[in-house]
Amino acid sequence: MKHFKQNIKLYFLVFLLFLNIFIFYSLYYINEASLIIAFLNVGQGDAIFIEAPGGVQMLIDGGPDNKVLRELGQVMPFYDRSIDVVVATHADQDHIGGLVEVLKRFNVGLFIRTNTTSTSAVYNELENLVKEKKIKKEVIISPKILSLGSQAEFDIFFPNQNTSGWETNDSSIVGKVIYGKNSFLLMGDSPLAIEKYLVGKYGADLKSDVLKVGHHGSKNSNSEIFVGTVSPTYSVISAGLNNRYGHPSSEAVSILTRLGGQILETLVQGTIQFKSDGESLILEKL
């Protein structure tokens, strides 16, 4: 008994250690069967973090600046310094500005972009980093399916051709993350003309649980026929507080209110995160 009392602190510390290990592995295996998608609060811009069942990670856009690093710190373990896939939907600052620091600080397996380039300093720095770090690069000029493992996938609908010389928004990568019965349609900054094409080409295949609203809720995107075709349960608007563009526009909000399910805004809620087990979708609070 005396020996036990002398070592009670040690026994307690060992108990806490094993308890922490148990909790860690419990959470790990729960997440193994789940897909996480977080619409990061990066101000006036887009950044979407995805972790598929099995652990494959993808970052779509990086917002305008280094805010993305802070937000990634909220959804990734502090020790995790790698991202499997980084996607630049198009070459505008509010989508690629933060990717420069992401590529500097993380080991990236694959970099995906369109064939529409830019002469901006940040675009050139991003391209140089891809080359210097010998990151595999893929240029999207036609639809494709990107497997994320464990039956999760990212179906790229657009671009459907070489977009060299196009206006950047027009060439935005549009894709749908699918895991089981749940899906997320991610629109970049695609304008009305591209929405019309997508409705004509894919029709009911655009139906999704979550719509990442095009162009931060601009009136130049989010038409009635498009939002009605997608018919989401949630519409996520990624925009900055009091931004100079007036996003989201009253026109887009009116359409989304009628046809887009529950509207969620990063400028109101902050980072917006969903979890899917392939059957049901949960809106989580960070």
How would you characterize the overall build of this protein?
- This protein is 33% helix and 27% strand.
- The chain has helices at residues 2-6, 8-32, 67-75, 93-96, 99-105, 121-132, 192-202, 224-230, 250-259, 266-269, and strands spanning 35-39, 48-51, 57-60, 82-87, 107-114, 136-140, 144-149, 152-158, 174-179, 182-186, 210-212, 234-237, 262-265, 272-276, 281-284.
- The chain is built from 10 helices and 15 strands.
- By secondary structure, the protein is an alpha/beta fold.
- Helix 5 packs parallel to helix 6 (121-132).
- It has 2 domains: 1-32; 35-284, Ribonuclease Z/Hydroxyacylglutathione hydrolase-like (Metallo-beta-lactamase, Chain A).
- It is globular and about 50 Å long.
- The strands form 2 sheets. An 8-stranded mixed sheet has the order 6-5-4-3-2-1-14-15, covered by helices on one side. A 7-stranded mixed sheet has the order 7-8-9-10-11-12-13.
